[in-house]
Amino acid sequence: MSDTATELRGREKAAVLLGYVGEDVAAEILKMLxxxxxxxxxxxxxxxxxxxxxEVKTVLEEVKSRLTEEVLxxxxxxxxxxxxxxxxxxxxxxxxxEASKQATTFDKLNTVDPKVMANFLSGEHPQTAALMLxxxxxxxxxxxxxxxxxxxxxxxxxxxxxxxxxxDDALKELEAVLKTQLNIAExxxxxxxGVQAVADILNNASKDTEQGILEMMEEQEPSLAEAIRSLxxxxxxxxxxxxxxxxxxxxxxxxxxxxxxLKTATDQLKEKIFKxxxxxxxxxxxxxxxxxxxVRVSDVEAAQKNIVKVARKLEEEGKIIIAxxxxxxxxx
Length: 332
Known about the structure:
By secondary structure, this protein is mostly helical. It folds into 4 domains: about 5-65, no CATH class; about 75-100, no CATH class; about 105-230, Orthogonal Bundle (Annexin V, domain 1), CATH 1.10.220; about 235-330, Flagellar motor switch protein FliG, alpha-alpha superhelical domain (Annexin V, domain 1, Orthogonal Bundle). The protein has 20 helices and 4 strands. It has helices at about 5, 10-20, 25-30, 35-45, 55-65, 75-90, 90-100, 115-120, 125-135, 140-145, 150-160, 170-180, 195-205, 205-220, 220-230, 245-250, 255-260, 265-275, 280-290, 295-315, and strands at about 165, 190, 320-325, 330. The strands form 2 sheets. Strands 1-2 form a two-stranded antiparallel ribbon. It has a two-stranded antiparallel ribbon with strand order 3-4. A hairpin with a 5-residue loop joins strand 3 and strand 4 (about 330). Helix 8 packs across helix 10.
C-alpha cells in the first residue's frame, strides 16, 4: 500500500469516497452535511482529477470496517433534525418532528410477550388494564385479552369502550407502573375512541373470546354492546356485501383460504360466494373443501380473518362499500 493511501486526511478520504460513489449518490450525501464540511470536502474534490486505486481501496476498507463495528453512531436528536431539514425543508421537517412527538413510548408494549403482559395486567386494577390495552395494536391487545382470566375480560373490554381520552396524569401514573414493572417510560396525552378500540380488538380475537365478552356486555350495557357490534365486521357479514364487493374480494384471496373459511359458513353465505364464481371455479372449490377433510377450528378462523382483512383493505381503498350493522353505509 502506498504512503499516499495511508496518509489521507479526513476531507481527502471523503473526497475519494464521493468521487467513487458517483454524482447522484454524492449529491444526496452532500445534502446531509453542514456547509463548512461541504466547502472543505468540495475544495479537495475540485483538485482531484483521477483516483488512485490504492486510495480508493483504503477508503472503502475503512468505511467497511466502521460499518461492521459493534457500536456505530447513527446520529441522535440533533442529527435527525438536521437531516430532516436538509431533506424536507424547514416547514415539512418541523411538521414531521412535531408528529413524532405524538408517538408515545407505549408503542414498546407491543414488543412485550403477551403472556407476560396478561399476567402483569391480571394483577392490576381493571381500569389500568383497560388503559394499557387501548394503547396497543388491536391484534396484540386481542392476544393478551384472550389469555386473561375470564372474569376480567368483559370488565376490561367495557372499560375500554367507555374511554374517550387518556389524560396526561393518567399516562404518568401508567408510566410509573411500567417503569418499575416493565422498564418502559415517557409519554404524552393520548386520544382513545373506546368503542372503536374494542371493536378492533374483538375483530382480532378468537370467536370464543369475542362472543363471551359481547354476551357479558349485553347483560350489563346492551346499548354499548350494540354500538360495538355496529362497528365490527366479521366473516359472516360478507353475506351483506353486494355482488361487486364479493367479486373484488375473491380476486384478492387464495382458494385454500376460501375453502377453509367456508367450512363453518352458513348456507346463505356459501351460496352468495358460489353465485359470484364461474361454474368451473365453484367445482374446484367444492372439491378442495371435500378433499381437505377435518380441519382445526383455529385454521378456519385464521382463514376467515385473512378474508376480513382483505375486505377491510378494499374498503379503505374505496373499492367496496361495507354497510354497518346499524344499516349505515361506510363510504371510504
